[in-house]
């Protein structure tokens, strides 16, 4: 009795040290226990294996398992579940399968937790078919799937884009009288919101309210964010007031999302009230909150308050990110204070901080719109930091001045440098040529854009291309009659609207062309 009690006390000590991540202390306690005649058991080592999997690594955990076996203690299903969970956290699928197979070879029957962990690992790595086979194995092995099994399945289906299948599973669960948890509803609502299916998410929210469960702050915040991302401001505000009336607290992100939505609609007073309510509620503002406040001050023309906010951020230990400065520079430019915007840009450049492309793009766009086109072009040419938004902004501004030739040259130079440009910029130039009566110029530009993109596809990894699903489905049917069908492939490829189709079909033409040249 004394020995059993002592081992239990030893296990409590080991578990406590493991939770505190003091694995060295846990190891020392085991050694001291052995010296005192208190021998560790499988529970002791299981706590240690789990801790090593979580905080050190799977190899260190395996070393503990080998020590277990040397000590004459046989690992059980809990030991291997810890190893499975550790491999799954690191997305090591092959190792997870090896651990699962090792369990079976040792005669250890996997339990429901083992199957759930393996299923979750397959879903994490984007293999929903294999994950569903694991779910079928649960039933074939006479195990009853529990709530965790169904929640894992629902979550995995949603994350891999199978929201319709997730909804079907949800309906089947309800039809068969399965008792669902609040987390089940939250998983489904989150998946639908991320897929942009706001209407379906709101319908599930209504079913949740009718089920007897009370939606929590996570449920409402998920739908709230989706409403604003989908530009459904009225529905978002409706959720916001509903949360408030039911006494739910918001997190900082929810407050900032609502304040940003108010600001976009020109409701600056309401946006300010929202941010004040957040500060009064005791929520510590983060960088997103400060950027939201900066945006509000700039829209209201309160630049003194904006500069004071920069000082407050510094006092609180926050470093301004690129968007903080970009918001301020954009606000100064829109207020007509281009010189102050330039001074601020020089100030942040002189601090030796990282290249601030968003701020430079805001300055460039603001200078051009303020009527200083030549100076903006000079800034553009002198700057070494350019991205797709820099080029797109300049192309749009040139199109507004009806300088379509200059815009087309800039667009092509961007593409030739291997950079992308916004589709809206391409359309603006082509539409500009057509509206000005230069339809031939529009066609020539489209041909040049296609040719530049086509030449870029020669760098595609051809081995990857041969194994590609898209190549097998699209390029092969066009090339089935031999390499002389290259013109047909190109014609069909560029008739497709899908950019991915164009990439793989055009790149395979390059592959064939190179192969033909090597035979000559």
UniProtKB/TrEMBL annotation:
Record-linked InterPro entries: PPR_rpt (IPR002885), TPR-like_helical_dom_sf (IPR011990)
GO biological process: chloroplast-nucleus signaling pathway; mitochondria-nucleus signaling pathway
Protein's UniProt keywords contain Manganese: no
Gene3D superfamilies membership: Tetratricopeptide repeat domain
GO cellular component: chloroplast
Matching SUPFAM superfamilies: TPR-like
Keyword Zinc: no
Keyword set, alphabetical order: Repeat
PPR repeat boundaries on the chain: 41-75, 76-110, 111-145, 146-180, 181-215, 216-250, 251-285, 286-320, 321-355, 387-421
Assigned protein family: Belongs to the PPR family. P subfamily.
The protein's name: Pentatricopeptide repeat-containing protein
Species of provenance: Chenopodium quinoa
